[in-house]
Design a protein that fits this description.
The protein is mainly α. It contains seven helices and no strands. The protein has a single domain, classed as Four Helix Bundle (Hemerythrin (Met), subunit A) (Up-down Bundle), CATH 1.20.120.
Length: about 120
């Protein structure tokens, strides 16, 4: 599987990743790190306690990582959580709605991580 095929399989935007990281070698390096860096796991853990500061910080970090990697859907989902918990913003979602959105993030991340693992296997 090529890096472009991986992006097609996981629904990522390879061209966006290429604009940010400039070469396939860096895309490959950083996409492999996604399953090991814990950014998504940290967000899901923060959601278990509905800790507002942690939810903002973790979702903001995830948004940046995913946007740089061209994982647009994950970045957009993380952005929605970040804006919900951005200091000074009024809450618009109930805790149960936030939990549902976090479950959606977790499901999409699982699909993405599975694709990355398949890519790593060659």
């Amino acid at each position: 599987m090529t890096i472009q095929e991986l992006y097609y399989e996981i629904g990522g935007d390879y061209e966006q990743a290429l604009r940010v990281l400039r070469v396939d070698k860096l895309i490959d390096k950083h996409i492999r790190k996604l399953t090991k860096n814990g950014v998504v796991d940290d967000l899901i853990d923060a959601g278990k306690n509905m800790e507002h500061t942690e939810l903002f910080e973790r979702s903001h970090a995830m948004k940046g990582v995913c946007a740089n990697l061209g994982l647009v859907s994950l970045a957009e989902m993380a952005s929605e959580i970040a804006e919900e918990f951005r200091p000074g913003n009024p809450r618009t979602l109930s805790d149960s709605e936030v939990s549902a959105k976090l479950a959606d993030i977790e499901a999409l991340y699982k699909k993405t991580a599975d694709g990355i693992r398949k890519y790593e296997e060659g």
